[in-house]
Amino acid sequence: xxxxxxxxxxxxxxxxRVIEIAAVEIVDxxxxxxxxxxxxxxxxxxxxxxxxxxxxxxxxxxxxPKFGDIVKDFLEFVGGTGLVIHNAPFDCxxxxxxxxxxxxxxxxxxxxxxxxxxxxxxxxxxxxKNN
Length: 131
What we know:
Helices cover 34% and strands 26% of the residues. The chain is an alpha+beta fold and 131 residues long. Helix 4 links the parallel strand 4 and strand 5. The radius of gyration is 15 Å and the shape is globular. The model has no long low-confidence stretch (mean pLDDT 97).
């Protein structure tokens, strides 16, 4: 599963939250057509810098479900699979924080393997921009 998130800021320890999750399934290097995409009401505003990146306003997210409302579907989609994430420590920290608020295991407890493509890119292209 290739996965990405958008968040209200840079640090879940400061109360920042996940506001969007998007994931696609790949089998044998081919998209299967299975995907997961949800906007999430974080119950707070985004920091200005984060808003400049994703453009998802508090007003747009107001009527979207809370993370707890989508967590079952999310875990059914990713559970038992490997994840491929660009800057995985960032996304996993946010997902772990959201799961923790619901007294659930961290994402690694549901997904046996997480591959960080940012780490891979830095190893393959040292000193280059890897976004």
